[in-house]
Amino acid sequence: MCGLVLQQDIFRKSAEIGYWIGEPFWGKGIATEAVRLLCQMGFEKLGLVRIYAGVFPINVASMRVLEKAGFQFESIAKKALIKREVIYDDYIYRMTIEEWESSKKKV
């Protein structure tokens, strides 16, 4: 499952990307390919200029998915997430339209 959450108002040219894949399918490149396809749709069809994702610091596999898809690490939002009553930092990754265009040239 994957999708883009389009932002509104002054953020309307941005979207948050999210994805989930069942454990039997981990390590097969499926999530990375889904992220790439969503970015293509976002930039080329929806006119976005920025796509971003927040990742729990313990989810190294998700960070790797984003990095393989061409995302750049942007920042850490300290103590921004809570899951099962544990507070975590939020690791923010992003891809801009310029980075997307540049990554297409490398393929």
From TrEMBL:
Residues 1-98 form the N-acetyltransferase domain. InterPro entries: Acyl_CoA_acyltransferase (IPR016181), GNAT_dom (IPR000182), N-acetyltransferase (IPR051531). PROSITE patterns: GNAT. The keyword Transferase applies. Keywords: Acyltransferase, Transferase. It comes from the Bacteria. Gene3D superfamilies: 3.40.630.30. GO terms for molecular function: acyltransferase activity, transferring groups other than amino-acyl groups. Belongs to the acetyltransferase family. RimJ subfamily. This is Acetyltransferase (GNAT) domain-containing protein. It comes from Thermoflexibacter ruber.
